Amino acid sequence: MKTLTRSFLRCTILASWFVLCAAQAADNDAAQTLSPLPKPFAAPDFTLPGEDGKTYRLSDYRGNVVVLNFWATWCPPCRYEMPSMERAHKKVQGEKIVLLAINVGESEDRVFEFTGQYPVTFPLLLDTEGAIIQKYPVIGLPTTFVIDPRGIVTHRAIGGREWDDEQLLAQLRKLLKP
Fold this sequence. Notes:
The chain has 178 residues and is of the alpha/beta class. It is 34% helix and 25% strand.
């Protein structure tokens, strides 16, 4: 059953990826914005191990804007956006904006290998069984959710972004203001 669920999850994500790549190639400029969700919702809490051996709980970040990214090492748009996430992480340090990237369905070893090519200093969390991705309305990879300081998911970005883009960072910073 576990193998069947993993295979289904990977096939669904792969099919979605092809659709996202075509859409993203058609409109790259629009991809640098965040659209508000029509119906914001409370972010489902979770606890996951990180690639660094630490344990991470989403609720520990209440009071911050959280950029919650779902990704995989085999996903080209994910690989493309990871360096921009690292640059964004460095730009917003000390600003109450946190980046968390949840790897979906891969082993710790696979993620470790990835960090050899794409070093990052923000947390890479491991959802090896695909349990957390099922709690969020993910449409292909990468899909990113923005969670406001109250713990409400206010935005969703489907497909890759240049997370260090100043317009995107301004949108995130705006969420910090009451």
